[in-house]
Amino acid sequence: MTSITASAPASRSRNDDLRAIPAVLRSEWIKVSSLRMSTVILALTVVVNGLASWATATFVTDEVLTAADVYIFPAVLTSVLAAIASILVFTSEAQHGTLAATLTARPARWVITVGKTVTAVGLGLVLGTVGMAVGLAGALAGGVELGDTASMPSTTGWTLLFTSLAALIGLGVGMTVRHSAGAVSGFLVWWFVAENLIRAFAPPRSVHFLPFEAGYRILEVGSDFDTPEILAASLTRPQYALVFGGYALIALLLGTTLLYRRDTN
Fold first, then answer.
1. pLDDT in tens, 198-233
2. At what angle do helices 109-141 and 36-59 cross, to 10 degrees?
3. What whole-number distance in Å separates Cα of residue 141 and Cα of residue 236?
4. 143-157 burial, b if ≥16 CB within 10 A, otherwise e?
5. Which residue from 7, 156, 165, 169 has the least number of CB within 10 angstroms?
6. What is the distance between the alpha carbons of residues 265 and 256, in angstroms, rounded to a whole number?
């Protein structure tokens, strides 16, 4: 009689997981580039930034504007698109059943989290850069002067931080909700409806600690809806970045925790 002996699964060390990160990153970018929605979001970034900057430069005549001012005005919409793209980085896999195969091929879930986090940051940087470049071109096409460019490198850096952190929040929301429509709609309702309602009734100091209110103020472009009380309670730009970055970290930690605790389906 012959006996059948089950072989023990091969052990996997932390070094094996670390060496797998470049392959995971390549895989994530391949998946992102294969999504039709990624192309749509990139095209929307170009159209929205170009038209918004051109329209602002052309039709806003009650103040003196330059291209150095206008090119970051559409950055809020760019950050929304970056967040939606990052939501889809996770939810597209979860909904189409490929997440289980991904986790089976690479069981270390922290490696998957790292890959998707780097991908989300990359999306925020790419869309932010494209948006500002097109925004600058649109503003110049609208007939305004280039203006003082001394502060543009700093402004560009803060804007890319804004779009990248927004993308990380989107990824965290996607990892938490796992459903594309639910995650995107909930994200948009919170940003454009819930925060505006809270802003109308909350104490002026607390307004600055709302996630996307803090993120928007990283740009330092001001708001027509600011009351003197809100302005008096303003934080510094680095403080707003810390608040917004804190929300991004919380969203990622929550999403990662749920990734570990849920099953793959």
1. 988 889 899 999 999 999 999 987 676 778 888 888
2. 30
3. 33
4. ebeebeeeebeebbe
5. 7
6. 15
Cα–Cα nearest to 131, from 74, 64, 198: 74
Label residue 265 exposed, middle or buried (CB < 10 Å: 0-12, 13-18, 19+): exposed
Look at residues 250, 214, 208, 254 and name the one whose alpha carbon lies nearest to residue 233.
208
The model's pLDDT over 10-55, given as tens digits with 9 standing for 90+, comes to 556 667 677 778 888 888 888 888 888 889 999 999 999 999 999 9
